[in-house]
Amino acid sequence: MHLDAFNELSAAEAESVLRPCVDVDRWVHDLISARPFTTRAELTSYALKGITPFDSLELDMALAHHPRIGEQAQGQSKEADLSRGEQATLNLDDDASARLKVANQRYEQRFDRVFLIRAAGRSTEEILAECERRLGNDDATEISEVATQLREIAVLRLNDLITN
């Protein structure tokens, strides 16, 4: 969708475009309210930096829609399609799949949430190393990292949906 068309959408139509990027009401509504954007760079900058950090409740809501890294998203929703595309570049042979499964389990035991990382542009080895590193985070640091990753995923998805 062209940026000009996005700017012209009703609030309800814009919400249906934005919600698959990240299911956080405040993020969606703040972006809608900030329209019109003159460039896609302005839109993505606002989406990445202009909206204050996600709180724990917003993270929990958004993470409910994300599959474990290395697992295929289920369903026919736009979110599921986007997630499958983001993880499509991972080289998941049996060994890598097993290692990701263990990493996911360790992370979930430690933080009681799914391990979230922007998979696009990362190798399986990079993802495993990041999971290992983040297991050493305290809760507050990890919440901040999850929020950053979620925002990066949202902006990637937004850039896939909106053109200049």
TrEMBL record:
| Gene Ontology BP annotations | purine nucleobase metabolic process; urate catabolic process
Catalytic reaction list: 5-hydroxy-2-oxo-4-ureido-2,5-dihydro-1H-imidazole-5-carboxylate + H(+) = (S)-allantoin + CO2
Q: Which GO terms describe its molecular function?
A: 2-oxo-4-hydroxy-4-carboxy-5-ureidoimidazoline decarboxylase activity
Q: Domain Oxo-4-hydroxy-4-carboxy-5-ureidoimidazoline decarboxylase: where?
A: 7-159
Is-annotated flag, keyword Lyase? Answer: yes
Record-linked Gene3D superfamilies: Oxo-4-hydroxy-4-carboxy-5-ureidoimidazoline decarboxylase
Under Pfam families, the record lists: OHCU_decarbox
Protein name per the record:
2-oxo-4-hydroxy-4-carboxy-5-ureidoimidazoline decarboxylase
